[in-house]
Structures are given as structure tokens and as C-alpha cells.
Amino acid sequence: MNKKIAIDLLDDGGNALYVSERKIYPRSVSGTFQTWRNVAVVVLLGMFYVFPWLRWDGRQAVLFDLPARKFYVFGLNFWPQDFFLLAVLMIIAGLSLFFFTAIAGRLWCGYACPQTVWTEVFLWMERWTEGDRNARMKLDAAPWSAHKLLRKGGKHLLWLVFALWTGFTFVGFFTPITDLAARVPFFGSAPGWGGWETFWVLFYALATWGNAGFLREQVCKYMCPYARFQSAMFDRNTLIIAYDPMRGEPRGPRKRGLSSVLERARGLLDPATAYDYVFRAARQGNAVSLGAAGTTAVTDVGLVAQPLPKFEPEQLGDCIDCTICVQVCPTGIDIRNGLQYECIACGACIDACDSVMDKLGYPKGLIRYSTQNAIDGKPTRVARPRVLLYGVLLLALCAAWAWGVTHRSPLIAEVLRDRNALYREAADARIENTYTLKLVNKDVEPRSFRIRVEAPSGIELRGGPQTVDADAEQVLNLPLVLSAPHDVRGKQAITFRVERADGAADASVASTFFGPM
């Protein structure tokens, strides 16, 4: 009972409490999925950088005016009273993530996540200045020289300019961007940027530079919670990027002329044998020398694997163990080891493998978008109860949100009764109550409004029904006086009616009129 259990918290040198991350050098790749990723980058970043400069009805098309507590999105404007619409929109976004993840895996991560999009652009700039994978690795390993300083300095200069542009654009969504550009420090007019504007430009630029330039895949692996709880949304019918071990194993190099297993007598392996080869190859294949990362049971350090035997050419599968699928992976994993939480479903390994299969004259699809059931030769169900439930809820929420946006009242009317006195007697012996009507024209156009009162016992609006003009998005505070005969007694229920002159909108506000008891 007194025996101590040794716990090793430090490395062999006793210098660290964590394992440092090796640098990943993704290799450039071309193909169908890379084309779609490039399109997504151009479209999404185009929206981000262009939208603040667009004009709509004489104002910035997309502007989140926090001091005025108003958001503008093209022809729509949102007031604080519309906050519930923002809440519904966030629910829709979350439910959309569940819905598309259940059907097609991590589409968001691979094609639309800001971390993925900006990292892709930073990789483009890195390749332009330092070259592709092998050139970058050679440059990093070389001693410092004028050539290396020029390459590295050029890269970081591009990164810095792009990051500052990103920070400036981000702030331009909250401060009119033309005004922000006119006050650029050292170049624009006085007084320059305010303290908070400067802080957020620099903060967002630093975050972009750090996340997309240095942290990269570590954000996806350690900082983003989505990778951790995706397993709760996946099942064997979810579309994932998967390697077909029954076709690909046993892997290994071969001479040209050997046909695909789909055309040979060997055919496909049984799943048990194929996955056993995957398990053993994960510990002695070429990917091991690359230091392929990834969290999967196949690479569990507590398991022992027997070495693979030497196979005859006719026994080999279609995988030639070229490791290009590992080299192009932005998170540095070996997809052949199975589904791993580090996989962002970008499809780079599919494009890389398909190009190799083309060169060998083999059918494409050794690595492909598929379901685990399909890989194992079992039927796949797309219309599953969970997917149907997500879909129905998503459609209902989208319809409700669209209805709420299109049926919002373009005016706000609130009535505050004068609480200093219940009533007062006028010189003509009539009883008067005083009110303040707060009228908000939410429209971006000037409007006219008619004001009247519905009340019993001869209570009427002094001066009769009124018509007032309100400028675009103007807030009016209008004093109103209700008058009644001297014989009106007690508490009387009344209703103020506010109607837009064109009849397109109206509002009713209930209040009370007090007379002598």
C-alpha cells in the first residue's frame, strides 16, 4: 500500500510541461475540391472586404452602428426592438451547423470557417515568397543569410499589410469606412482615429497575423470546441473523407504496369484484414517518417502491432504509400488511419490521391467523400430521424425569421402619462390629462403620421386628430393633451391610434384618463 506510483510530467530533459508542435508545411495541390475552396475564399473574403464600401440609399450598405444602436444590412435596418430576430438568427446558424454536419461532416471547417479562409490566403502569400513545401522546409533549415532574410521579410511584410487591411475593414463595419479611411493616421485628416478605433484595428490585425500565420492548425485542434464535440453529431451515415482500406491495402510501391485491384483477380480485401494492415502500417509506413499527427485508436501508443510481411506485387492494394495525402493535409494527419478529429474535411487529400491514381491509370476514389457504412459495404441512409428533425426545425425557424423581418412594424409608438398630476381643470371647466407620445419612424424614408384617440364619455384630443412629419429614423417626443367634460369621473380606458399617412403601418397604445372621483 506504500508503493509510490511514478508520474512523469516533464520531458526527458525536464524542461517542458507540454509537447511542442512540429511545424506543418502543407504541399500545394490542385483539383476539384481545391478549386471549390479557392472559390469559397474569393467569395467570402470578397464579401468581407467589399461590403463595407458598397452604398445603399446614400449610406453604407452594411453598417453596425453601435452608438446609435442600429444595424444596417442593405435594405434592412434593425433597431434594439428587433433583438429577438438576431437571437433567432443565431439559433438558425447553430442548427444549420448541426444539420449540415450530420449530413456531410465538417463542411463549415473545410470551406467557410474564417480560420480556414484566412489561413489559406496566408499560405498563398507564403508560397509566393518562399516556394512550395520542399523549398520552405529547406529555407527554414538553412542558416540565416541575405536571401533567407529577404524571403522571410517579404512574407511577413505581405502578412502584416494584409492583417492591417483586415483589421481596418473589420472596424469599418462599425464605423463608416469612408470616414475611417479619411482619418487614417499619418495620411488622413485630423484628428485621426480615436483610441478604441486604433485598438481594434491593431488587435484584429494582430489576431489575424497570429492565427493565420503562426497558430494555423493549432486553432482547429486545441482552441476550437467544434472539433471536440463533432463526434456527437457524426454517425456511420455521415458523409466524411475516408480512405478505402479494402481497396488500398496492403500499401506499397510497385512497378508501372500493375493494374488496379478493381481489375485484378485479387479484388477487395475483407474488412478485418484491411483494417489490420492499416493498424500495422500506421507504425512502420512512410507516413511515420513524416511525423504524421492525428488522434485515432489506430495510433494508440499502448497497442502493439506486428510488422507487416513483404508482399508480392499481385498482393498489393492500390495505395502506393507515396504519402502525398499526408503532405497536402493542412493539419498534418494521415487520413489512411481513419476518421480523426483533426480532419477539417477540406478535401486536399482527395485531390492529391486522385492525381496519383490518374498517373497510375487507376480509378479515382481511393480517398473520397463517403460514409463509413458505404466504405464497409453496407447501405447508407441519408434521411435519418435526426436529419429530418434538424431539417424541419431549420425550415420552420427560417420561415419564422423571414416572416418576422418582413412583417416588422416600421414605427414604434409609446405613451407616457404625466404623473405629476392625475388631472387638471382648465379655464373652461373641462378636465385635462397630459401625455407624451414617443413616436419612432424606423423607416429610412421621411414619413407622415396621423394621431387620434379612441375614448368614451366625450374624451377627445385637444385640437382634434393631428398629423406630424418625421424624418428618416427620427425619434419624436410629442406632448398631447386629452380633454373631457367636467362630469367625467374616475378612471377611463383610452387608446391612442397612430397611423402612417399611406396606410402601410399603424400602432395602438392603451392608456388611461383620470377625472375627479
From TrEMBL:
UniProt superkingdom: Bacteria
UniProt entry keywords in alphabetical sequence: 4Fe-4S, Electron transport, Iron, Iron-sulfur, Membrane, Metal-binding, Transmembrane, Transmembrane helix, Transport
Pfam families, per database record: Fer4_18 (PF13746), Fer4_5 (PF12801), FixG_C (PF11614)
Keyword Magnesium in record: no
SUPFAM superfamilies hit by this protein: 4Fe-4S ferredoxins
All residue ranges annotated as the 4Fe-4S ferredoxin-type domain in the record: 307-338
Residue intervals passing through the bilayer: 35-54, 83-104, 157-178, 198-215, 387-404
Family annotation (InterPro entries): 4Fe4S_Fe-S-bd, 4Fe4S_Fe_S_CS, Electron_Trans/Redox, FixG_C, Ig-like_fold
PANTHER family the record matches: FERREDOXIN-TYPE PROTEIN NAPH
Protein name: FixG Ig-like domain-containing protein
Lineage: Bacteria, Pseudomonadati, Pseudomonadota, Gammaproteobacteria, Lysobacterales
